[in-house]
Design brief:
It comes from Mucilaginibacter antarcticus. The chain has 13 helices and twelve strands. By secondary structure, it is α+β, with helices and mostly antiparallel strands. The strands form four sheets. A six-stranded antiparallel sheet has the order 7-8-9-10-12-11. The protein has a two-stranded antiparallel ribbon with strand order 1-4. The chain has a two-stranded antiparallel sheet with strand order 2-3. Strand 2 and strand 3 form a beta hairpin. It is globular, with a radius of gyration of 21 Å.
Length: 411
């Protein structure tokens, strides 16, 4: 077994054995999916890299890549385009976020066969717009009123989606009852004992949490698959039904939280959070202009979870579909860069992060940009090499499930 595979298996050891097999299969699809599933490798390697320029500290989402921007409905009922994954979020050098994102541009564009020259121009554009936004010292937000071009069209399209759309995809009518469908490949059965505990827990959360929806009760529960890096975590989907409005439903996602994979590889002093779920939510509140509806944390069976609504409007822009439209790609990357800088400005000066003056000075200093692009370009090549080795090991059965480990979705 290669050293690479040892590193990957060690990181994924605490995850659900049966579900982590699906993660390994997803990572074998292409180099970009492999990159998304191995955030820990990126930071482990970055920790030993030489010549990384010193940059201001900032609150970061930690796993920034092209598909960790997307749409969601805020608690003010407006639909936004913003950062949307905070599992790895913490306080770190601002450059960590940028190098992770730049590397994703080079890898994704290669996978989607968009072209190296275009990837390089997009990486340069990303840093140019990011720096200009910092230098301007004014955070922006993108909703249907303020967005332009592709993002505006994307937001207007997702805004039209309804709960009826998601009900058709994820539920079935069984004996005159609406329940979550087990025919959906993203849903897995939860056994009776665990289901009873989960139902009681969420019904209690609804009653006692100020973040929960009023007058709802749990009607159906499944184990849910989503993402790449988070595959293997315990994650449950709840169908809630209103107790006072006929045929009104909500979907609620409850996802296990674990320590940030950035944490072992940064020397920055971190805040002491009560739970990992509270860390994730705190970082999300700091970075997003408006946070998502029903965002909450809970502890179930002594493990921390993030709770949030599964929304019909939540989606990401598919770059593969834009490969023939250079101008559209340009607009989206430009918006992503402005959003990244805006998140850091929005959280500037909070509990250890650089203040606005320091971030503005960083934006005006262009001396660090070339180094970050060069690092990302070289690291993208390393990721492709790692992916090649991973495929060899995967096909040889190195990641095959250990039959002595019990399936633990229902444990």
């Amino acid at each position: 077994m290669s050293n690479l595979s040892n590193r990957i298996k060690a990181f994924n050891e605490p995850l659900l054995p049966d579900m982590v097999q699906l993660k390994y299969a997803a990572m074998a699809q292409n180099a970009f999916r492999f990159y998304r599933g191995t955030c820990h490798l990126f930071y482990e390697d970055l920790a030993t890299a030489e010549g990384v320029p010193l940059t201001p500290l900032a609150w970061i989402c930690g796993d920034l890549h092209l598909e960790n921007f997307g749409s969601y409905k805020g608690d003010n009922k407006l639909v936004y385009f913003d950062l949307n994954d905070f599992d790895e979020g913490l306080l770190a050098p601002a450059s960590y976020e940028l190098m992770r994102m730049l590397t994703s541009i080079f890898i994704a564009f290669d996978c989607f066969k968009i072209g190296h020259n275009k990837a390089m121009r997009m990486a340069q554009l990303y840093l140019k717009t990011y720096s200009a936004t910092l230098a301007n010292a004014k955070a922006i937000s993108l909703d249907p009123r303020t967005a332009k071009g592709v993002v505006c069209g994307f937001l207007n399209a997702v805004e039209k989606r309804t709960y009826g759309d998601i009900m058709k995809k994820r539920t079935v009518n069984k004996k005159d009852k609406i329940i979550l469908s087990l025919e959906d490949e993203r849903h897995f059965k939860v056994d009776k004992k665990l289901k009873q505990e989960l139902k009681a827990h969420i019904n209690d959360w609804i009653i006692n949490s100020s973040d929960g929806p009023y007058n709802y009760k749990v009607k159906s529960i499944v184990y849910r698959l989503a993402g790449t890096g988070s595959l293997g975590l315990k994650r449950y989907l709840f169908l809630l039904k209103s107790t006072n409005t006929k045929n009104k439903y909500l979907f609620v996602d409850m996802k296990q939280s674990r320590a940030s994979s950035v944490l072992p590889y940064t020397t920055v002093q971190q805040l002491s959070w009560p739970t990992e779920a509270e860390r994730i939510i705190a970082v999300q509140h700091r970075l997003q202009n408006v946070s998502a509806a029903l965002l909450s944390s809970t502890t179930f069976r002594e493990q921390a979870y993030v709770i949030q609504e599964l929304q019909p409007v939540k989606d990401t822009i598919k770059f593969k579909l834009l490969k023939s439209h250079y101008r559209k790609i340009y607009q989206v990357i430009d918006d992503m860069a402005a959003i990244t800088a805006s998140a850091q400005l929005r959280s500037g000066g909070m509990q250890g992060s650089a203040n606005i003056d320091d971030l503005t000075a960083f934006g005006n200093d262009k001396g660090w940009q070339e180094h970050l692009i060069n690092y990302a370009l070289k690291y993208a090549d390393k990721v492709k090499q790692n992916y090649g080795q991973y495929l060899i090991d995967y096909k040889e059965g190195v990641f095959k499930a250990d039959n002595n480990k019990r399936s633990s979705v229902n444990s």
